[in-house]
Amino acid sequence: MEALACQDLAVPAEVMHHIVRVESSYNPYAIGVVGTRLARQPRNLAEAIATARQLERDGFNFSLGLAQVNLHNLAKQGLADYALAFDPCPNLVAGSRILADCHVRAGGDWDKAFSCYYSGNFSTGFRDGYVRKIRASIARDAAAPAALAIAVAAPPSPPRRPGNDSPAQPHRQSLAGRRGASAPGAVEPGAQAVPPPPVSTSQPAVATAADLSVAAPAGRDTALVF
Q: What is the CATH number of the domain that holds 55?
């Protein structure tokens, strides 16, 4: 589909998408020989040009490139040489102009325009099944399911402290702390814990940093949603 971003297409890119899918399967080096076929399709530009030149010398009628522009339309569409004719954008623009002309001649009937693009008239494309192939391509895209968004991944489990079977709880600041005053014995993140005043002089309360340490809140992994 990137090739359909070419400038100056004479018909909607969506229409050319179905033409290209049926005509060449998006092979920019495709060559279709009228009345016969190649042993295989060219694999690169050099092979494509050499094959086209040989076919012309041998008197074959053929179409080439993404939009399968016919040999007899190349000069009319400004495709002066085979290198340019196999170039995706010039080839697509030429094909779109041919189809646009067919569409006008068909009085705005796309099916007749497709037949005209295929054969130059408004009947052969129906008889040979070309119009049916284009319609099948359109139906295929219409039936394709809409893309679904990727769900957010579940957050990881909270880390556990060694020797403790229960998950570590994230530190929560006290109501007093939220109001700007420190609650007795409250632990500020990154600060040394301060024990409460001793109850009696004979049995002072002793606290260590290990006794009052608080695990940091668990992080959250978030997946991008496309």
A: 1.10.530.10
